[in-house]
Amino acid sequence: MKKKKLLWTGIIAVICIASISVYIVMQQGQAVETSLVEKGEIKQFIEDTATVQSTKKQIVYVEGAGKIDSIKFNVGDTVKKDDILLTMDKKDLELKLQDADSKIKAAQSQLSGTDISNYVNKIEISEAEVDKAKVSYESASRSLNNSKVLYESGAISKQELDNVEDTYKNAEAVLKSSSNQLEEIKKGTPDYVKNGYEAGVEQAVILRNSIMREIDKQQVLSPIDGIVVEKLLEENAIVVPGTTAFLIDNTKNLELEANILSDDIYKVKIGNEVEVSGKAIGNSLLKGKIIKIAPEAKNITSSLGVNQKRVMVTIEINDDTDLLKPGYDLDIKIITEIKSDTLVIPDSSVFDYKGDSCVFAVVDGKTVIRQIKKGIESEKTIEVLGGLEEGERIVLKPDNNTKEGMKVRG
């Protein structure tokens, strides 16, 4: 009997202690984590992925014909402007050049007299100047045509286009001047010299110059500084003029292209700030801005096989692009709206209640459900347009055990 009395006495004591503990907790309030409602900055953004592209990608073509002797660069190699990318067999052309030189010497030997030789030399020098001017003019003309295409696509500025046009006009003027000078020299040459020269030497010189131009075409030069991203030919291949040889990216002029869901594109504006990150650039965070928005949406199939309407945007990088390589896939955040000095609360404090967005405000140590009006939302914060005042305290992470009217501390 004594043992039973002792047991009951112990149970009653435990119950009393527990009751006292609950009473103390109830009096002190449930411990919860709270947050102060304060003003701050909030950024609304769209997250997606973008691919690094070169703004000056160049396709390089073969101008000559024949067998490829040697390819100097492979995919991934860095090249400089005017580096020799490949060479082609030119043995037959070199033999033809020797034959043309022999014909020139034979024609010149048929002419006699110091005066005649002087006229011949003047004509030859003047013709060489004309040929040189023609090469510069043709190069400037091609460069102008390419630059007009790049300018229309937005890849180069108006100033850059004007510089190319100035170079073209200068080359045109030089060609005209040298051609006029050649004509004047020919006009001042005695008829008997002119006739003999045109019958022999001139034809041989024209042939030689033509062969030399063909020899020049037997090697392909890089038009820009960059990286070889595609090599489309192999050694010993037989090619014809116009064959595509290389694709070269200019790694100093890079931009990003992203395809944004059509449901979100209305938020995006030219000039929006963009944050760029990703494994390919380590822990770096690069800054950029939207510089172009495509005028129409396109159907694009996602990696999960879902067909979506998306709009392409182009992003200019404001920071150093040394970390970037063409083809990199990176994460982007397009900042569509920024608000400063506005009420901001953690998103973990907001819950849905009877169809409204609500929080638990702490008033006189007790929880009170407070309906709020939300503004823009960021990754972990929400703007509050109504329902709360600066300096109020709210429950940071309410759960199913949090009830209105609870006494809380924290």
UniProtKB/TrEMBL annotation:
What InterPro entries has UniProt attached to this entry? HH_YbhG-like (IPR059052), UPF0194_transport (IPR050465), YknX-like_C (IPR058637)
Its taxonomic placement starts with: Bacteria, Bacillati, Bacillota, Clostridia, Eubacteriales
Q: Which residues cross the membrane?
A: 7-26
Q: Which Gene3D superfamilies match?
A: 2.40.30.170, 2.40.420.20, 2.40.50.100, Helix hairpin bin
Keyword Transmembrane applies: yes
Gene from which the chain derives? yknX
Which Pfam family, any one, appears in the UniProt record?
HH_YBHG
GO cellular component terms, alphabetically, are: cell envelope
Q: What is this protein called?
A: Putative efflux system component YknX
- Span of domain YknX-like C-terminal permuted SH3-like: 343-409
Residue runs in coiled coils:
161-188
YbhG-like alpha-helical hairpin domain spans which residues? Answer: 88-204
Q: Which UniProt keywords apply?
A: Coiled coil, Membrane, Transmembrane, Transmembrane helix
Subcellular location per UniProt equals: Cell envelope
